[in-house]
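User: quick one, sequence for these tokens?
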């Protein structure tokens, strides 16, 4: 807004309601809006209603969308929850769809159809971006019901609206396929019942698949097994998973809920949805039925040699593959809108994003845990070498999230101080580690990582904490509202960062396990056993190599 000569201000009652900036089409500036010539208008700020009106005016259906209009539409739909509710947007689109022209000229009828198609173009893209979230919003469904009815009523007069009707049907899985003939005047009475039947079915709650949680079952005060499971999983099924991972007899174990005040309650085998109902300060603990027998995780445990042998016997490429498959499943489930909810602290769920962030932290702790629970120096050196190779493979597989986590795990203070271990690591592995470490160098705003990641072709998994840091930096460094107008320049920058997810997932990786002989690696990676307390890790580190 520095160049006032190229700024257009739309006013109502003496107040700015929309601010546009005239820029060259070849300008690298943020894009929003498209023009026929070599210049265009970029939305700088405005009221939600005026930004939506500008967007509708910018859409040119018969010529196909231009890149600038596509980006403006994407910016608006990705970020609208910052400045208006879903119900408000539904109602605004319904108003624009139903707006009437007051002359009887044929061209006005054509214009009315053109406006309706523009609205349905926005709705179509909205459904594409938000389908699952819209299905779960009961208020939005009620407003969409009215839009659906309006399109239904217009279908005979405007047959070209059938595509938009089908997309509305797909949003709510309307079972009946409507055709133009059904809405002819001759058949209107006979189809009334079908209309009502379809609309009632449309509003029925649907099942969208079992919800999942990323859960932890503690073995000791700061040691746990983590895995992803359905919320409906019973306590008995959870116990089976944990016993298998710990190589313990399931019949000898029980699950207990431990509150922040150390109160304990034993879980019954048929208890369900146990993780979903837990308070954040409450933990699930697995322990022996015999109170005189304890499950512990120390270097004297009989389990430790078995763990080391299990890890050292695994192929590093298969480990990296299974880590990548697991991370990709989590990354692929993240909705783009979760980054908006996370950044602006909305009440909406960010469960999938939280899963991946938690996984990154757990892989880092897993590296430290495995090394520090290995009491033999020679095997500890082998573990360090193996983790360096796994990190290199993760980079080759373009799984930067686990790559960063492994490098950070090896760089943790409890591991770095193991001088005897590092001295025996061969020079070629130290050189490889140094090269890998350079990619995690935070200097110049992580330039080494950004340059390398930009060159990687999708599919690829970014380092999510850094992406969130970028979005948060934009959010905290710019006001969301300027003089009661939405700061749309800021929202474009945030949307541009979020579009990185779409680019990373523009190709898909295969995650099917076709080789049965690697199922042990998959099970190992899916059920990590971790110590999540830095003090405990330091105690183990000093026990292995006391300070001299």
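Assistant:
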């Amino acid at each position: 807004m520095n160049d006032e000569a190229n700024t257009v201000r739309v006013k109502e009652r003496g107040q700015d309601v929309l601010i546009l900036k005239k820029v060259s089409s070849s300008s690298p500036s943020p894009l929003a809006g498209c023009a026929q010539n070599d210049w265009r208008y970029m939305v700088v700020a405005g009221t939600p209603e005026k930004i939506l009106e500008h967007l509708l005016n910018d859409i040119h259906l018969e010529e196909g969308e231009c890149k600038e209009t596509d980006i403006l539409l994407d910016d608006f739909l990705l970020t609208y929850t910052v400045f208006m509710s879903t119900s408000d947007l539904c109602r605004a689109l319904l108003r624009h769809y139903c707006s009437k022209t007051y002359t009887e000229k044929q061209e006005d009828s054509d214009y009315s159809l053109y406006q309706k198609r523009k609205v349905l173009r926005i709705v179509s893209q909205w459904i594409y971006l938000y389908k699952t979230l819209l299905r779960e919003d009961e208020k939005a469904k009620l407003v969409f019901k009215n839009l659906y009815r309006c399109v239904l009523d217009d279908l005979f007069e405007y047959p070209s609206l059938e595509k938009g009707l089908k997309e509305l049907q797909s949003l709510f899985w309307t079972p009946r396929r409507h055709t133009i003939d059904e809405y002819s005047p001759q058949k209107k009475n006979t189809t009334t019942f079908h209309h009502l039947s379809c609309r009632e079915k449309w509003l029925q709650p649907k099942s969208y698949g079992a919800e999942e949680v990323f859960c932890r079952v503690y073995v000791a005060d700061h040691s746990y097994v983590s895995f992803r499971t359905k919320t409906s999983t019973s306590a008995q099924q959870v116990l089976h998973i944990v016993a298998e991972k710990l190589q313990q007899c399931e019949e000898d174990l029980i699950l207990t809920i431990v509150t922040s005040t150390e109160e304990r309650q034993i879980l019954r085998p048929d208890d369900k949805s146990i993780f979903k109902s837990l308070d954040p300060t409450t933990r699930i603990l697995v322990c022996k039925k015999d109170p005189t027998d304890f499950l512990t995780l120390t270097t004297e445990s009989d389990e430790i040699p078995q763990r080391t042998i299990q890890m050292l016997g695994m192929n590093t490429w298969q480990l990296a593959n299974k880590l990548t498959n697991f991370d990709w499943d989590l990354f692929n489930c993240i909705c783009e809108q979760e980054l908006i909810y996370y950044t602006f602290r909305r009440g909406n769920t960010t469960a999938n994003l939280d899963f991946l962030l938690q996984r990154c932290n757990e892989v880092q702790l897993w590296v430290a845990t495995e090394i520090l629970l290995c009491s033999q120096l020679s095997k500890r050196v082998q573990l360090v070498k193996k983790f360096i190779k796994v990190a290199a493979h993760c980079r080759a597989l373009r799984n930067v999230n686990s790559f960063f986590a492994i490098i950070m795990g090896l760089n943790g203070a409890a591991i770095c101080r193991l001088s005897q271990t590092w001295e025996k690591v061969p020079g070629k592995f130290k050189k490889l580690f140094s090269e890998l470490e350079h990619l995690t160098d935070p200097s110049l705003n992580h330039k080494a990582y950004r340059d390398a990641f930009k060159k990687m072709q999708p599919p690829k998994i970014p380092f999510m904490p850094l992406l969130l840091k970028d979005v948060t930096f934009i959010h905290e460094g710019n006001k969301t509202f300027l003089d009661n107008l939405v700061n749309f320049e800021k929202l474009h920058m945030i949307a541009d960062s979020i579009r990185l997810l779409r680019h990373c997932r523009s190709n898909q990786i295969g995650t099917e396990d076709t080789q049965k002989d690697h199922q042990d690696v998959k099970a190992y990676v899916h059920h990590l056993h971790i110590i999540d307390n830095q003090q405990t890790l330091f105690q183990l580190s000093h026990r292995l190599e006391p300070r001299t």
